[in-house]
């Protein structure tokens, strides 16, 4: 399987100018290609092929005075920018035709130098190389890298990214072989929430760090300082970078928390079962800020790829499964249960913690769905008849 390994770059002032030039050239080629296809579509002309588009906006454009400066950067950077445009169009057409699953994708739009993220990509054809503690990029030079770990294999490409906080990163695509961990007997179901970030079926509760909530006071102060700066001034640019750096700290802390907890869960359990939450729907409610702060989708994605990498079993159950209202002891389905009800008692006499009971039901549902293909039980256990339900009732037909 392929994974991305990201490392922090520390380019010199001259290298930052060269990278800015490469970002601008890649952005220009992307916009020129998009404009050419839009004009052809508006004029009712046939679609411009990928090869013809590359010839127009790169090869022929370099010979014109308006685009002669495209020769100052690596040709691979320009070709990869055009490849991104072609991929965006293919994804758009696959989305509107129904071949691509998930939400509908908008057509590609023009890139701006004011975008929060600027990126260029080098493939093996660009002959980038790792020389000691530095990354050698064509027409840019040897850029210092903070190597936090070793690459497991030879990278097939590297993407140089500049984020909104002004930081530079090198993202390598490498092929990683699966390294199964020794098998264990334990399995777990995970109920994700806001009061606690995650509750496991064994009763363990992982507290929610609420990184964004804890940083709100400083973010408010920085946002007030930003709002007072004149638009277009250097002070406003400095204030904007300060806000972006604070948001980057929050995102980095959240990502580190997700990595630590997902690694522990995958290492200690052979099977991990989670609920397929409707995060996009919850993000449109009054709990939107807390939902985004929790980052459930990123956490579940880490669980999924780490389970595959370590030889574990990962399973999702249907989001409509009534995990909170179903008694894990007898299988009785309770009535409506508002969010403020954190514990409840079943008619069989079992008192449940809402989140722990949901985690147990998620694990049981995951086991049932996995065993269904092998002829195992797929239905929940029959509920025990209560004394008031047994026998015939007076007046029954």
How are the SSEs ordered, and which strands pair?
Elements: E1 2-9, H1 13-42, H2 50-60, H3 75-96, E2 118-123, E3 129-131, E4 134-137, E5 141-146, E6 157-162, E7 168-175, E8 187-192, E9 196-200, E10 205-207, H4 211-227, H5 234-268, E11 271-275, H6 279-282, H7 288-294, H8 296-310, E12 313-317, E13 343-345, E14 351-353, H9 354-372
Parallel strand pairs: 8-11, 11-12
Antiparallel strand pairs: 1-5, 1-7, 2-6, 3-4, 4-5, 6-7, 8-9, 9-10, 13-14
Please, could you describe this protein's structure?
With 397 residues, the chain is an alpha+beta fold. Helix content is 40%, strand content 18%. It contains nine helices and 14 strands. The strands form three sheets. It has a seven-stranded antiparallel β-sheet. Strands 10-9-8-11-12 form a five-stranded mixed β-sheet. A two-stranded antiparallel sheet has the order 13-14. A hairpin with a 5-residue loop joins strand 13 and strand 14 (351-353). The radius of gyration is 27 Å and the shape is elongated. Mean pLDDT is 88; it is low at 375-397.
What composes the largest sheet? 7 strands, antiparallel
* Shape, per Cα inertia axes: elongated
User: What is the helix tally?
Assistant: 9
Give the class from helix and strand content and strand pairing. Answer: alpha+beta
Instruction: Going across the biggest sheet, name each strand in turn.
Output: 2-6-7-1-5-4-3
Helix and strand element order: EHHHEEEEEEEEEHHEHHHEEEH
Rounded to an integer in angstroms, the radius of gyration calculated over CA atoms is: 27 Å
Helical amount: 40-55%
Q: How many β-strand runs? A: 14
Beta-strand fraction estimate: 15-25%
In whole angstroms, the N-to-C terminal distance is: 64 Å
Q: Spans with pLDDT under 50 lasting ≥5 residues? A: 375-397
Mean pLDDT: 88
């Amino acid at each position: 399987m392929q994974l991305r390994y990201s490392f922090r770059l520390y380019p010199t002032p001259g290298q930052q100018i060269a990278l800015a030039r490469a970002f601008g050239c890649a952005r220009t080629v992307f916009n020129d290609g998009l404009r050419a296809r839009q004009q052809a579509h508006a004029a009712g002309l046939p679609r411009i092929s990928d090869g013809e588009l590359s010839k127009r906006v790169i090869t022929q454009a370099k010979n014109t005075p308006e685009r002669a400066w495209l020769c100052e950067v690596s040709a691979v950077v320009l070709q990869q920018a055009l490849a991104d445009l072609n991929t965006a169009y293919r994804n758009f057409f696959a989305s509107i035709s129904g071949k691509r699953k998930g939400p509908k994708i908008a057509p590609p739009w023009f890139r701006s130098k004011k975008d929060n993220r600027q990126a260029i990509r080098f493939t093996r054809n660009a002959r980038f190389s790792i020389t000691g503690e530095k990354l050698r990029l064509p027409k840019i030079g040897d850029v210092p890298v903070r190597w936090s770990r070793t690459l497991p294999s030879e990278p097939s490409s590297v993407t140089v990214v500049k984020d909104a906080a002004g930081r530079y990163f090198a993202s390598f695509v490498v092929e990683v072989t699966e390294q199964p961990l020794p098998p264990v007997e334990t399995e777990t179901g995970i109920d994700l929430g806001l009061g606690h970030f995650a509750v496991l079926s064994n009763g363990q509760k992982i507290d929610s760090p609420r990184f964004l909530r804890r940083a709100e006071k400083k973010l408010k102060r920085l946002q007030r300082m930003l709002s007072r700066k004149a638009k277009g001034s250097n002070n406003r640019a400095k204030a904007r970078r300060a806000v972006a750096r604070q948001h980057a700290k929050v995102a980095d802390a959240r990502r580190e928390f997700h990595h630590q907890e997902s690694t522990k869960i995958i290492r200690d359990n052979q099977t991990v079962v989670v609920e397929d939450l409707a995060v996009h729907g919850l993000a449109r409610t009054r709990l939107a800020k807390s939902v985004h702060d929790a980052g459930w989708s990123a956490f579940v994605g880490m669980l999924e790829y780490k389970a595959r990498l370590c030889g574990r079993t990962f399973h999702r159950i249907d989001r409509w499964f009534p995990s909170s209202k179903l008694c894990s002891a007898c299988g009785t389905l309770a009535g409506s249960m508002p969010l403020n009800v954190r514990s409840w008692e079943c008619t069989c006499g079992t008192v449940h913690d809402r989140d722990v009971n949901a985690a147990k039901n998620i694990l049981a549902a995951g086991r049932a769905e996995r065993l269904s293909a092998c002829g195992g039980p797929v239905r929940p256990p029959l509920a025990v008849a209560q004394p008031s339900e047994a026998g015939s009732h007076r007046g029954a037909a």
